[in-house]
Amino acid sequence: MNTLSSSVAVFLAALVFSLGLAAPVTAAPENIGMDPTYAFSDRYPVEIAASSGEALLTLLDLSIDFDRVDFNGGPDHPGTIRAYINDDERATLETAGYTITQIPNEGKEMWEKVQKEWEARGALEAPVTLPDKGDRWTYWYSFAELEGDLQALANDNPDLIQKISIGQSVQGRDIWALKISDNPTIEEAEPEFLFSSTIHGDEVTGMDMCLRMLHYLTDWYGINPSITELVNNVEIWFIPLHNPDGYVNGTRYNAHGVDCNRDFPDPVSDPNDNPAGREPETQHLMYFGYDHTFVLGGNMHGGAEVLNFPWDCRYDHTPDHDLFIEIAEGYTYLNPPLWNSTEFYHGWTHGAEWYLIHGGQQDWWYEWRKELHYTMELSNTKWPPYSQMDTFWSENRAAMLHMMDEVLYGVQGIVANSGTGLPVNATIDVVETGRTIRTDPDWGDYCRLLKPGTYTFQFAAEGYNNVTVNNVVVTHENKTELNVSMTPEGSDVGVAEFVRINLSEPTPNPVNPSQGAVRLLLDLPRAAHLTAGVYDAAGRQIQILKEGFDLTRAGRHTLVWDGTTGSGDPAGSGIYWIRVLAGDQALSRRVSMIR
């Protein structure tokens, strides 16, 4: 962890004069009960009072582990910072004239109570006995119980859940990630979403929200149409407990005493997107992120109630600032305590305008992965009594579902090679926003969330001719489909003119070939070379529906698949994709085969 350097100490001493701070003041000792020092660390929680708004903002620029800031009347007025410091840092700050008040470590105090409950029911080590479904939401799980519940959830829902370890903590505990999808072990051309929680081991409300949402989605899949649509069309990932060592030991930090939410590459202080030399928990999430292309996500915290978005590391606004606000308000509108916040307008804040940090997770996602992620502060208390979790669930359930639904909208499509139909690893620029995203290299799919408006999209890839698409219209909570075929450089067919085609959903779907073939309607605005084929879930072509040697006339066409492979054998039950290439555009539709 960072400590106050001697140069900072000199700087702070100068503040006594330049900012008119009072002489060194030590607050009267508080009755704080148990030792407030965090496990694996020499730090403890304090409140730091500043006598002017300028002094407060100056504090935020220092290398102290800040937790939250309360502006009494706004950022131009004096306020209080909650932070975690050691004795040396405290002495330096007090010498510079800041008033330091040591406060109870409420998270640690609650953890000690919970730890005794775990011991009493024999829950510290596997095997453990999980509660019946009716008694599930009654107490904080131990780590062993959490692992048992996640494994039982995966065992009970093999067609919906994939459970993996993204790596192990300092002390060797697995960091579990669960994917919910209608094809959980197969990557599909679908947008990806991520909820993670408890990178600070004593901030646990989000962990419980993730666990409840995992159960909620599996319980209601196939029953609730909106839940079924979400799971069928989005690859949803959960990491309920990012810092298991911190959770087991009741501390903010990992077992090396490091705040992992200050350990990520940072655009300002550490512009090096390299996991080497970082904490294991940080490295594992980074490598997990490299393997995925998330459209949207949220990492859950406690100690405040607000949705926080980039930048944390600089006061500038991102190109997606207004979009961040729109998505945040979609969440907070459904969460009354956030929407009605008296501290944050409608329950959201631009990170640095609350307080500046470096090495935060959300800035790494945005800068290097080009993804939209929030820091979601869900409870003012870091480790609340479990009796409050039903209330937090009722406040966050609909909001979490709404946030996941967001990735069903925006501009979506597949970028493919115009000759082979294979996915292209392309960059996508929206001229009006100034931010570049990438396609998923496995499928060539992408999803760009945007506020309503009209945009210009530019597609580029190494070895391909660029494609520009003008007048792409985005409307509120609707999907605009934009599929693009890219022509290799030097190809004798030249650069194709963009053709906007329309392909209907397949009918019937699901299909049983014994009862008839599946049909799709294709509208061509002009004559084009048309290729159509059927692909299995692994991306292998099993049937050709239309060769592209001759021009296909403009107008409406019907594509028919009788459920057979190219060899004439019946295709087995499962998921298939009908992919169409028309000139410079590619479209795909999913078909469920039932025999």
TrEMBL record:
| Coiled coil (UniProt feature) | none
Hey, which family's this protein in?
Answer: Belongs to the peptidase M14 family.
Q: Which PROSITE patterns match?
A: CARBOXYPEPT_ZN_2, PEPTIDASE_M14
This protein's UniProt keywords = Carboxypeptidase, Glycoprotein, Hydrolase, Metal-binding, Protease, Signal, Zinc
Q: Which GO terms describe its cellular component?
A: extracellular space
What is the protein named?
Answer: Carboxypeptidase regulatory-like domain-containing protein
Q: Which InterPro entries match?
A: CarboxyPept-like_regulatory, CARBOXYPEPT_ZN_2, FlgD/Vpr_Ig-like, Peptidase_M14, Peptidase_M14_domain
Which cofactor does this sequence's record say it needs?
A: Zn(2+)
Q: What superkingdom does the record give?
A: Bacteria
**CDD domains tied to this protein:** M14_CP_bacteria (cd18173)
Q: Which residues form the Peptidase M14 domain?
A: 139-407
Question: Catalytic site residues?
Answer: 377 (proton donor/acceptor)
Q: Which residues form the signal peptide?
A: 1-27
Question: Pfam families per the record?
Answer: CarboxypepD_reg, FlgD_ig, Peptidase_M14
GO biological-process terms attached to the record? peptide metabolic process; protein processing
Query: Which molecular function GO terms apply here?
Result: metallocarboxypeptidase activity; zinc ion binding
SUPFAM superfamilies reported for this sequence: Carboxypeptidase regulatory domain-like, Zn-dependent exopeptidases
Transmembrane segments in this chain: where?
none
**UniProt lineage:** Bacteria, Candidatus Eiseniibacteriota
